[in-house]
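quick one before i forget lol
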Amino acid sequence: MQSAKRIGRLRAWFSGLTLFVLVCAFLGWGIRELLFPPTDACAIERTGKRSPLDSSQVYPIKNNIELIGHVGGEAESVFVRGNIAFVKLGLELAAFDIQNPSDPRRVGYILMGGDLIHVDADGNNAYLYSSGDLSGLWKIDTADPTQMSAAHIYDPIFYVASIRMLGEQAYITTQTCEYMTFIEGSIKTRCDDALHIVDTANPDAPVKCYQGWLDDAVRSFAVSNAPELITASKTVRQGNYKYVAEEKNGFKVYDVSNPLQPAEVGS
C-alpha cells in the first residue's frame, strides 16, 4: 500500500514538474516574442528589392582598366556532364572537353566570381552563388560551352544559409539574427529563417517568400529530399575516371579502374 502511494506521489510530482517547465518555456517564448519580435525578412526584401545585375556588370571597367581574359587559378569545384567538365578556376567558370580524359582541353569560359554549386543533368545550365560584390544566385547558360552567358536571378539582402534545387525551382533559405548591445559587446537574442523560392526558368517572376514556424515546417518537408548545394562539389566519378578540383594543385583526372592504385592521367 505504501509503495502504491509513493509511486502516486512521484507521478504527481513528475506531472507537476513537467507542467511547470512547459509553462515557464511558454512564458519565456512569449516574453521573447514581445521584447524581441522577429524581423519580417519577406517584407524587407519586397520593399528593398534591388535590380538584378546585368552580365555586363560582372567585371565592370574600373580606372580605365577592363578585365578581358584570365587563365589559371585554384580549382574550387567540378561537375561532369557527358563529355564536358565544368570547373570553377579562380575567377572563371571553365568548360573542358574530356572525350580524352588524359588530355582535357578548355573549350570555353566565362569570367564569374563565386562558387559553382550546381549543373543541370542535361548540362544546359549551371548555377553560381556569390557572397561578394556580385552577391546572389547566377544562372549560366552552358548549352554551348564555347559561348556561355550569365543571368542574375536572385539578389539576397540577408545571409544565405542554404540553397537547394528542385527541378527549376531554387529553394533559398536566408537567416537574420537580432542582437542586444551592451557596453562591452552584444548577445544574440534570436535568429529567424525565411524561405525564398526562385523560378529559375523565369527570373522575372516574383520571388515567393515564406516565414514563420509553420512555413519552416513546410520548407523542411519540401526540401527534405533535395541535396544541399551551398557546399561546392570537389570530386566527380564517371566510369573509370575521377575528376577532382584540388584547389592549388589544379584540376586533375585520375584513372580509378583499379581503386587500390589510382593513377593521375591528366591535369
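fyi Residues 2-35 form the longest helix (34 residues).
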